[in-house]
Automatic annotation (TrEMBL):
It comes from the Bacteria. InterPro entries: ATP-grasp, STM4014-like. One of its GO terms (molecular function) is ATP binding. Residues 55-78, 383-414 are annotated as: Disordered. Residues 122-354 form the ATP-grasp domain. This is ATP-grasp domain-containing protein. PROSITE patterns: ATP_GRASP. Keywords: ATP-binding, Nucleotide-binding.
Length: 414
């Protein structure tokens, strides 16, 4: 019988949902390797022949302290330290798999590390011709430099993102004209410190905004030109598309009244039929092709979550994020005709594993994307990078931080 192991947090929803999918497919529950043990440098033991899944540390306070250092778990920041510690932990997992006969990783630690660095991820997507919003090159060290660089680029609206953030932690949607500013963010500036909040708020005092950006810049920033998104019923929308073994299998519409559509920040699941109708058959096929192309930039990862933005004109497309752990979409069934009907995101991954995903990666070096067919909207073989859309960059130009409270079921992209 196939032996599976998960590097995760015991009792975390991600671990439990994956284990439940394994059971439904007749597999034994995976052995769990706790992140806290990995991060403490304790011995990692794997069964010979184990297929090893690396999952998110989740909301374990012990893991968070080992990753970011001691402090209030709801604080914003510490992303650079998180990323360094997390990358080192994954290296230890890879070493353990390397010395265990027959053990195989289901995702590549180097690819995960890139997905958790928005600057590197954006550059990789752009180099492959995947449409992404233009971004300011090089480091942005503080608020003064941000405003200067925005002026030089003639950008009045930008998204300021912590390089290693997730779940929209610390993301600032900024509109600036001279000394008049409006910044929308979930970061709560309290007593000179930044904390994550489940409520999106606005700042119009430039002094407050300067404090926020300067604090965020200490861990590195990624700044993109604002991409005006399509809306339905007065809510802006984007898509989270889960791609499993190269095929888009699941999609959820995220709709919100704030620039950030994350479900834990007040966003709601929208109507996918309305989105496919707005795009039309060719536009929907194009959207899936872009998502498959983004996932193809990470060919040694079993599954990724692609955050796709649709332009206000319903023609432009741009990838906002690629999430290594973007499959937490409870009760969401697969797209009609996509081969994962009746399956959730974890079932689809287990089925891919049973279908030889790991063996294909090890022995065949398979880095291609197969045919995608989703209901009445078919997409041909995705064998080349997608062409950039007008107004987006198609050529070369955090780790997650804890939230103030447990968010409702949904995905974790920024």
């Amino acid at each position: 019988m196939t032996a599976l192991a998960v590097v995760g947090t015991p009792g975390d929803r991600r671990v439990d949902l994956f284990a439940a999918a394994c059971t439904r497919h007749g597999l034994a529950a995976p052995a769990v390797v706790p992140w806290v043990r990995v991060l403490r440098g304790e011995e990692i033991r794997l069964e010979p022949g184990a297929l090893v899944r690396i999952d998110s540390p989740g909301e374990d306070p012990g893991a968070d302290e080992l990753l970011r250092g001691p402090g209030e778990p709801s604080r914003v920041g510490g992303g650079a330290r998180w990323h360094a510690a997390f990358t080192a932990g994954m290296a230890r997992v890879r070493e353990a798999a390397g010395r265990t006969p027959g053990a195989v990783l289901l995702a590549d630690p180097d690819e995960i590390a890139v997905m958790f660095d928005k600057r590197l991820c954006h550059a990789r997507l752009a180099a492959a011709g995947v449409p992404v919003p233009p971004a300011l090159p090089g480091p942005v060290r503080d608020y003064a430099e941000l405003r200067r660089r925005m002026g030089e680029a003639r950008w009045g609206r930008v998204f300021v993102k912590p390089a290693h953030g997730s779940s929209a932690s610390g993301v600032v949607a900024l509109h600036a004209s001279g000394h008049r500013v409006k910044a929308v963010t979930s970061a709560d500036l309290s007593g000179g410190e930044l904390y994550n909040s489940l409520r999106v708020r606005s700042y119009e005092d430039e002094r407050d905004l300067a404090v926020i950006v300067d604090r965020l810049a200490a861990d590195g920033l990624h700044v993109e030109r604002w991409f005006p998104k399509a809306s339905i019923g007065g809510r802006v929308i984007d898509l989270r598309v889960v791609v499993v073994d190269g095929t888009p299998t699941h999609a959820v519409v995220r709709a919100g009244r704030a620039p950030m559509t994350n479900l834990h920040l007040g966003g709601v699941r929208g109507d996918l039929d309305a989105v496919t109708a707005g795009l039309g058959p060719a536009g929907w096929a194009r959207a899936l092709e872009v998502c498959a192309g983004a996932a193809a930039c990470f060919p040694r990862s079993l599954a990724v979550g692609v955050d796709l933005m649709i332009g206000a004109d319903w023609r432009g497309l741009a990838v906002a994020e690629v999430n290594a752990f973007g499959d937490l979409l409870p009760r969401l069934e697969g797209l009609p005709g996509g081969g994962a009907e009746g399956l959730d995101t974890y079932d689809a991954q287990v089925r891919a594993i049973l279908g030889g995903y790991a063996a294909g990666r090890v022995h065949l070096g398979r880095h291609t994307v197969g045919r995608v067919h989703l209901g009445r909207h078919a997409v041909g073989p995705v064998i080349r990078p997608a062409r950039p859309e007008p107004g987006v960059r198609g050529t070369p130009g955090g780790g997650p931080v804890r939230r103030a409270a447990r968010k409702p079921e949904g995905e974790a992209g920024a």
